[in-house]
Structure formats: structure tokens, C-alpha cells
Model the fold of this input.
Amino acid sequence: MVVAIRLAYYGCTNRPFFHIVAIQHKRARNYQPLEQIGTFDPMPNANDEKLVAVNFERLRYWMAQGARFSRPAARLLGLSGFLPVHPYSYLAARRNRTHLETAQAQNNDNSADTENDNDKDS
Amino acid sequence: MAAPIHTVCLKKFPFGFLFKISNPLPKKCLLQQRLLSNGLPDSKGDTLPTSTRDVERLFLNAEVQNILYRVTKLDLDKVFHVRKQHLSNPVFKLMTEAELKKNQELALELAKEKLQMPPIMNQRKTISKILAHDPDLASIDMVKYVFTDISFGVKERDRFVVVREPDGELRYAGWEERDRMMQIYFPKEGRKQIPPRMFERPELLEEVLTRQNYEFVLDVACVQYEPDNPEYHRVVYRAYAHIEQTKSYDQLRSSRHFGCLTFYLTMHKKIDNLLVDMIQRNYLADAADTIRLYHIFHPECKSRAELHTLGTEPQALELVKLFAKTDSQKQGSLELALQSYEDLHEATAQAAQ
Done:
């Protein structure tokens, strides 16, 4: 059976936390893994950082054993520089940028509108 | 020359007996610092005129180490002083003379380990290496991602810690980020995630120093920071400067910090009050040792030039007198102390007769 390297969702209500695990790919999400090789904390800390710990040496071992990455795991490791950047990361980044631009444009429109209203009132 | 220095490091510099043994000085770090030396800043934070000299190399010099060890004066009563511990029943052992002697020797070895000096290193250079520019990844997230390598058996200084910024740049983590990550994933006993407030706010540090809790401050600083951390330097050198002002050297005697204090004062040519203190306590050999250290650090000084006038094996008293005449900045008080010492010894000699 194929080994998968993927994120196992732990934590509690309103507080997610992920383990990066090497596990038989047909097992349940949080089933006891072959090995836990890292963690990912999706909630930013006091210094505005999302912390990821990866045992790259063991990751290389499992890759040598023919492990496959899940998409979120591959994206995370692409960000780290260990794997090439995932195309979905580029897409997501561009999506975010366009959202930010439209939001900014809307803000500018709103502020322009309120200014006009103020002029009218006075 | 690199190999002998490295082995000295490995044997001599675990960070205190009570705390987990941290990494010794890495070879990479030593080589780097030798090329770009920063010198030893004084209490105001300015670097010395001798800023091109390698302070680390001086500290690791065998003769300097010997002098600093002798000057520290191993006092078993002070090293093993009474302190708060977990309550437990006392253990009584019945021993033969030979066993007792063996245990006493072991205790001496333990005391020597406790007196290991925290190394004096140059300030570490900022890390500013960028691994990749990726403007297409800009706004991937609103916060940065910090990736730490938790592979087994990698030295702390060699571990990879990289940061992906929101603008898509992948870079090595800076020293503060590295320290935080190392403490999260490989915590050291006694080190806090958030440094104690007396290190964050200078006025609180001054308050603690006014109370003259020097050993406490220096111990906490030693546990909290790496020896090449600029914060460590700031705190520790401020403490040394304060000790120099209040002349309370005896507090640190027979502790692991006395050697470093002597090193610092000798580097900054502020040994006069220390010498007076040593003479008043009849530690004339220590005073001579300190002057020898002064000669190693400042080979261009006048007293070294005139050393030949004292003959091949100068007496401790003669050496101190020569220093008082030539290089001392407080000649009056030093000569007064020497005079009192001589009078006292004449009086005792006469009384003996």
C-alpha cells in the first residue's frame, strides 16, 4: 500500500492544529501513523508567524520509500523551499491579490462617495 | 591552530553544571569571528580601540585560562553553599579513609565543573541571506511561515530555520527568530520563552543591580542568552560596570563569573580597584596574575617594557609596585594599599620574632 504524507487535523474547538504524518493512504485521517514527521500551527502567534516544524531527514526517507504528498502537504512544503512551489499556491496568491485590489478599489470609491456627501451637506 | 582551540572548547564549555549542556563554540563561528572581529564593548556600548583584536582567541588562550582559573579561587564552602532544594531524607554513608578521600576528590572535580566560565565571544553578525525571490507568491498569506528543521542529531547552530514572507521572499531566519524556534522545539532548562523583564527594561535591571544581586543577574543572563547574543553582552557588561563602581568584587569570587569579570576589567584597563581589593585581602598572587593578564592583553604597556628591571622571576609585590608606578590610573590608592600591606607584614614578622 502507498504511503501518504499528509496533514492530520488535531487541536480542539476554534483551535486547529495539524500533524504532518507519514501514513498508509487508506487509513483514517487521524489513525495512528507510521511516523509523525512534523507539525503545522495554522493560527498565527504573537509575532505574526505560522510555525511549521518538519523532520526533513525522515521526510526524505519516506519519499525514498515512494510516499505521495497530499495537496495541502505539498503546498506547505513548497512554501518551505523543500519541494518546488505548488501551482495551486501561485493561483491562490493571485486570487488573494485580486481580492485585495478590488477591496482597495471599493474602499477608495466609498471614501470618495462620503467626501462628496460631506461637500453636499456643507 | 584551529583544531587545538576546538578541542579546548569541547572539553571546557558546557553551560553550567545544573543546566543542560549546550553546544560548544562551533568551528564555523570561530572562523567567521576571526575575520570580522567586533571587539569588546564597554559599559556605554562603544567598542574599544582594539576592536580588530579577536577577543575569543584571547579568552581561549591557555595561559589566560590558567590565570582566570587561579584568580577565581575555588572555595568549596562557597561553591556548595546552602541552597533551596527538593526536600529529601539525608543520606548517611559509612566510608573507609580511602573512600572518603576519593569522594572528596570527586567533590573537587564537581566544583571545578561548576566554576566553568561562560565563554566571552564577539557579538554575532546579523543573518541576512535570501534563498529565493518569488513575487508571484506575494499575498499567499497575511502572515509569515517559519519552517524549522527538527531532524535528529543536527547541531543547534547548523539547523535550518527559514521564513517565507507574505511578499513571497524565502530567507534564513534572523537570530531572534532562531532563538525562539530553538527554545520552542528544543527547550533548554531554565531558559524562558519570554525573557525576564529585567532584561527587557533597563530601569528594572538597574533596580536589581542596586540591590547588588550580581550573581543572580549573571546566572539568569547566562541561562537565558547565548554568549554571542548582543543582549547578553549588554546585560553582563552593565553588571560588570556596576560591580566596578561599587567595588563588590568579593561577591563573585569563587563563582563562575569572576574570571569573566577579570577579563572584562583587564581589557578595559580598569583593574586598579580590583588590585586594591586583592591586596587588602592578602591575595597578592592574584594581583600579580591580573597584571600578567594585563600584559598579555596590552603588550604595548609601560610596565611590560620595564619588566626586565625586576629580573627573571619577579616577586608578586615587586610586580604590583612596578605596575603602580607605571600603568596605574589610581596610583595613590594603590600605593597606599601596598604600604599598608607592607606595614602589616612587617608588624607580624616582628611579632613573630
In short: Residues 87-121 of chain A form the longest helix (35 residues). The beta strands of chain A are 3-12, 15-24, 35-40, 49-54, 68-69. The helical segments of chain A are 56-64, 71-80, 87-121. The mean pLDDT of chain A is 94.
